[in-house]
Design brief:
By secondary structure, the protein is of the alpha/beta class. The chain has one domain. It contains 12 helices and 6 strands. Strand 1 and strand 2 form a beta hairpin. Helix 1 crosses helix 3, helix 4 crosses helix 8 and helix 5 runs parallel beside helix 8.
Length: 289
């Protein structure tokens, strides 16, 4: 269970919003101006990958900053306890009450074959969390995490790790999205034994390796990619807007390295555009610079 909770903590998927303009292909952006004494950096991660090796430009940005801020404070010793409290459905809802018998059998078989346990053990867990438990099976390699690498370097540099939001904030997102809509994702995954998910994760990782954050947003904005794309405001827009005052606070205090899911970067309500609207100069950083 501890392993599953750790996995869930790094697999909150991002969906997307309407494009404002095509941004340069880069996952690393420099934040300057608007009264900042020192530059900060914004790095777009992918939560599940086969290779989380940090490129030289990212390492330099980490060296030039003095604290790391992720979506949530992932070294919070109480994080797993808080997640455990928030992963269950309310109002006595159960998975079995939201799917038909055929769908339930398919989901149960998927869990037995891939997780080594029956889904009956997680009968009242939110459907999104059930799907998240399977994410590491969507890739044909040992799962790596950019967040884990960032935490490792921060620790080596004796730097603090903070969060732009709390784990309770993230859990609330999946309380606001109807369970019935969340379960559609799980049913699709079970019916084709993860074939669709594996193909899409492979495509997403290729897009990420090309640092094409605009194409990533286009893909994630497609409702055929995710059944909860209609809830972009809760998944992305509202969170991005809430992050800007926090980013301002951290960056004004000291040079800060921000690491968030790459799906949050592009678009009209993406973090890059919102920071620019707030008066900051945000420019792409390329490894050749």
């Amino acid at each position: 269970m501890k392993y599953l909770l750790s996995l869930l903590a790094i697999t909150f998927l991002s969906t997307s919003t309407v494009l404002a303009q095509k941004l340069e292909n880069s996952t690393l952006w420099k934040i300057e101006g608007n009264g900042l004494d020192k530059a900060s950096y914004l790095f777009g991660t992918i939560h599940i990958t086969c290779d989380a090796t940090l490129e030289s430009d990212v390492i330099i940005a980490l060296d030039e900053t003095t604290q790391v801020v992720l979506e949530i404070d992932m070294d919070d010793p109480e994080m797993q306890v808080k997640m455990m409290k928030g992963m269950y459905m309310k109002d006595s809802k159960t998975l079995k009450s939201m799917v038909n018998d055929e769908e339930y059998i398919a989901i149960d078989s998927l869990f037995i074959n891939n997780m080594g346990m029956s889904v009956k053990m997680f009968e009242n867990v939110k459907p999104f969390f059930l799907t998240s438990m399977l994410y590491s099976k969507f890739i044909d390699c040992p799962m790596q995490s950019f967040e884990a690498e960032l935490i490792k370097i921060a620790s080596e540099q004796n730097e603090e790790i903070y969060g732009l939001e709390t784990i309770e904030d993230q859990i609330q997102v999946f309380e606001d999205i109807p369970y019935e809509d969340q379960v559609k994702e799980l049913v699709r995954t079970a019916k084709d034994n993860m074939a669709y998910d594996k193909a899409n994760f492979a495509k997403l990782m290729t897009i990420y390796s090309n640092e094409n954050i605009t194409e990533m947003l286009d893909m994630m904005n497609d409702d055929s990619y995710t059944s909860i794309a209609d809830y972009q405001d809760k998944l992305l827009d509202d969170r991005n807007k809430n992050w800007i005052p926090r980013i301002k606070e951290y960056a004004e205090d000291q040079g800060t390295f921000f690491g968030v899911g790459a799906g949050h970067l592009a678009g009209e309500n993406g973090v890059i555009n919102l920071l620019r609207k707030a008066g900051y100069t945000v420019t792409a950083v390329r490894d050749s610079e």
